Amino acid sequence: MSKHAAIVGAGIMGLLTARELISLGWRVTVYEKYTEMEYRKSTSFAAGGMLAPFSELESADELIFKLGLSSIDLWKEICDELPSPIFFKSNGTLFLSHQRDKPHFDNATRRIFQHVKESEAAWVKVRDLEPELGDSFEQGLFLPNEGHIDNRQLIPLLASKLEADGVRILYGETVMDLRPYVVETAKGSLLYDIVIDCRGIGAVEDTADLRGVRGEAFLIHAPEVKIQRPVRLMHPRYAVYIVPRANDHYYIGATSIESASEAPVTIRSSLELLSAAYSVHKGFGEASIVEVLHGIRPAFKNNAPKISFEAGLVAINGLYRHGFLLSPVLARSFRNFLQDLPVEHAEQIFSFVRG
Could you tell me the CA-to-CA distances from 104 to 78, 110, 170, 323 in Å, in that order? Predict the structure, then answer.
C-alpha cells in the first residue's frame, strides 16, 4: 500500500509539495483552513508572481539567487502540465530609477553585477525595450532571464489538476493541532506516514524565530499602458514593481513592513505605490483600481527559507517575499531528500531535529 502524507496549508508551497509527492506514488491529503469561496484570501493570491532571482540580488542573500535560478526551469515544467494555458512570461525585467534615487540604484546594480555573467545583465536604452517609458527614462538595467506568472490564474488550475491526479484537498478544514504522524481536527485525530507543515505565517506560534512581514499591493486595469515586462523602480524604502497581467491589468507592489497586522492598506502605502507607478507611466493616472491586496509573508531572521525535519513531521517555511520564486525548488529538494538524491544547498536550507 502506498504511503500517505498530510499537508497542512494549500498555498503555493503546499500545492507544489503535493505535486512532488504524488509523482513518487504517495497518497496525499491537503488541509486548507479557507473554504473554496474564501480560498482567495490566502497569501499566495496576494503575491506578485515575479520569478526574478537576479533582481533579488539587490537586497537578498546569494542563496535566494541560486535557489531562484533553479526554480525558473521548474516553473516551465509545472505550467506545461496544467490543463490549460496561463499567463506566464519569461521576457526579463527592466530595473529603473529616477535621478533623485540614483545613489540607491547604483548600490543595487553594483551588487547585481558582482554575481552575474555578462550575458545575464545589460545596460539598455529604455526606449528600445519599452517605447512608452522612453520619455521618462533614458537608461535601465535589463535582466533578460527573469519571468513572471499570474498566480491568480495558476493556483486554481494547479489545485484542480492535483485533485484530478488523486490529491484530496479538504477546504474549510481547520487543523487544531499537528504533530509527528498526526493531524487533529474537530472530527478527530488521523494518522499519516508523514505530516508536512506548509502553513506559512499560520505556524508562527509553533515555529521559533518566525515573524510576519506585511506586503501590500494593487491590482489595476490600465488600458492606456502597454508595458510588456515587469518594471522594478528603485525607491528609498523598497523596490516598487509593476508586473503586467493579461488584458491590460497590472500588479503594483509591494511594501515590506515589519508587521503581521491584517488591517486595511494605509493611505501612506497607497500614495507611495500608486505615485511610483504614475511616475513610471502617466497612463496609470487613468487606471481603475480592481483590488487592494495585502498578505503576511513568513520570514526567519535571515529572510531565508528552511525545511525542518523530525521523525514524522516536516515544516517548510520562511519563504518571505520569495514564495513563487522558491517554492518549486524547495518542493523538489524535499522530494530529492525522500529519494536519497543529492540536494543543492542542503546545508543551508535543511534543519534536523534528532529524536
Answer: 36, 10, 46, 25
What are the residue ranges in the chain where pLDDT is below 50?
Answer: 355
Model pTM greater than 0.90?
yes
Question: Homologous superfamily of 93-144+211-299 in CATH?
Answer: D-Amino Acid Oxidase, subunit A, domain 2 (3.30.9.10)
Domain boundaries, the chain: 4-46+152-209+301-352, 93-144+211-299
The fourth-level CATH superfamily of domain 4-46+152-209+301-352 is: FAD/NAD(P)-binding domain (3.50.50.60)
Residues 193-244: tens digit of each pLDDT: 999 999 999 999 999 999 999 999 999 999 999 999 999 998 777 679 999 9
